[in-house]
Amino acid sequence: MFSFDGFRRGARDGMPLAVSIFAYGVGFGLVAAQAGFGVGKAVATSAAIYSGSAQLAAVNLLQTGEATLWALFATILVINARYLLFGATLQPWLWSAGPLRAYGSLLLLGDANWMMTMRAIRSGEVDRAYLAGTGTPVAVGWLSGTALGAAAVSVLPRPEALGFDLMLACFAAAMMTAMTRTRADLLPLAVGAGAALAVFQVFGPAPAIIGAGLAGAAAAALVHRGET
Predict the structure, then answer these.
(1) Is the pTM for the entire model greater than 0.85?
(2) Beta-carbon neighbour count of residue 98 at 10 Å?
(3) Spacing of C-alpha 107 from chain mean position
(4) Which residues contact 99 (CB under 8 A, 6 or more apart)?
(5) DSSP designation for 158
C-alpha cells in the first residue's frame, strides 16, 4: 500500500521534526556562509549531501585550506555510511511499494524520520508512503533553514551566540537517548565517545566524528551479534 492517506499521516507526524530541523538548518547556513558559501551554494550543499553532520565536517575541512576532493569524498562517505544500515532495516517493509517509490522515498530519509518510521512500523504501519510523508516537511525545513541562515549571516555573524553550534550535539544526544533501551546499548556509546575523544586530541573534529562512528558501530555489531 502506498497512498496519499499514508503520506498525509507521515507529513503530520513529521511537522514537529521539521521545526527543530529548520533551526538546525539555520545553524548550518550561518556556518556555511562564514566559510564563504553563498545562499545558492549552501542550499545546493544541503540538498546534495542532505546530512548535517557530514556537511559540517566538510565545511570544517574546507576551512583548513588543506582539503582535497578525495578527503571530502571520504569524509562524507564514511559519515553517511549509516544510511546503508538505515536502508537495510527498511528494505523488507519498503520494497513492496516497488523500486521507483522505494528509492524515491529513500531520497527523503534522515536520522529523525528513520526513527519515526521504524517506530510506526513496530506499531503496525502498513502504508509505505508514510516514510515519504515524514521526510517531506523535514526536507523543506532543512533547505529553507539553510537558505535563511546563509542569507542572515550579515545580521547574525556568530552562530554560537544563539547556541546553533550545539544543535548537532543536542540532536545526537536525543537520538542516543531514544535508541538506548538496555544496559548493553551503553557499551557502543562509551566506545564511540572514547574513540572521538582520542582521535580529536590528535587529528581534530572531522576525523573524530569518523572514528566515533566506526568504533561505535563495531562495538554495536559485537554486542548485538546474532540478533534478528
Answers:
(1) no
(2) 12
(3) 12
(4) none
(5) -
> CB–CB of 87/109 below 8 Å?
yes
Q: Characterize 140-163 residue by residue with b for buried, 16 or more Cβ atoms within 10 angstroms of its Cβ, and e for exposed.
A: bbbbbbbbbbbbebeebeebeeee
| Burial label, 110 (beta-carbon count in 10 A; 0-12, 13-18, 19+) | buried
In 33-72, the DSSP E strands lie at none
Who's near 81: CB < 8 A, 6+ residues apart?
213
Quick: pLDDT tens for 182-200. 676 677 778 877 887 888 7
- Contacts (Cβ under 8 Å, ≥6 apart) of 153: 29, 30, 33, 34
CA–CA dist 54, 60 (Å, integer): 10
**Alpha-carbon distances of 155 from 63, 110, 162, rounded to whole Å:** 21, 30, 12
Maximum separation of any 2 CA atoms in the chain, in Å: 53
